[in-house]
From TrEMBL:
<dbReference type="InterPro" id="IPR034660">
    <property type="entry name" value="DinB/YfiT-like"/>
</dbReference>
<dbReference type="Pfam" id="PF12867">
    <property type="entry name" value="DinB_2"/>
</dbReference>
<feature type="domain" description="DinB-like">
    <location>
        <begin position="16"/>
        <end position="147"/>
    </location>
</feature>
<protein>
    <submittedName>
        <fullName>DinB family protein</fullName>
    </submittedName>
</protein>
<dbReference type="InterPro" id="IPR024775">
    <property type="entry name" value="DinB-like"/>
</dbReference>
């Protein structure tokens, strides 16, 4: 189970590394053109959502203090953004998502069919633990990766080859 999602997530994480490579650490708190999220929030959000994915599957948040800063519903006005480095946030992402993939592959099918209990997504097509895991590894990750890509393109950086 979750082989396809794992494969897609690995692709997205490789692309993440390319997208953030030329975003300077000292500019990660800068808002994107048109009011887009700053990279510090996007990276922190991906990191904490990866840890939430672990928690959903029986693991734990390794950075619970980040939840109010980067969790769902948080403001992208990150207070004290200079305490976070691009490399630290990327490392947490690279640690969290492989763990989600491992946990997902080992989770019993009956657990994956249970409601996820995440109120924000009630009354949506994402209704089970399995649905939310798939969303976190693929569409959600890709959506925020696109925001990082838009930030760097608005900064005048060329396409990634």
């Amino acid at each position: 189970m979750f082989q396809r999602e794992t494969h897609l997530n690995q692709f997205l994480m490789g692309y993440l590394d390319k997208v953030v490579a030329d975003i300077p650490n000292d500019r990660i708190a800068e808002r994107g053109a048109g009011g887009g999220h700053p990279p510090v929030w996007i990276l922190g959000h991906l990191a904490i959502v990866g840890e939430m994915g672990q928690m959903l599957l029986g693991g734990a948040l390794e950075h619970p203090e980040w939840f109010p800063i980067f969790g769902p519903g948080s403001s992208d006005e990150v207070q004290g953004a200079d305490r976070f480095s691009k490399n630290e946030l990327i490392q947490v992402i690279h640690t969290a998502y492989p763990k989600v993939c491992e946990l997902a592959a080992a989770t019993p099918p009956e657990r994956l069919e249970q409601p996820h209990g995440f109120e924000l997504l009630n009354d949506t097509a994402i209704s089970t633990v399995g649905d939310l895991t798939t969303h976190g590894l693929t569409a959600h990750f890709a959506f925020h990766l696109a925001q990082l890509s838009a930030w760097r393109r608005a900064d005048g950086k060329g396409p990634i080859m």
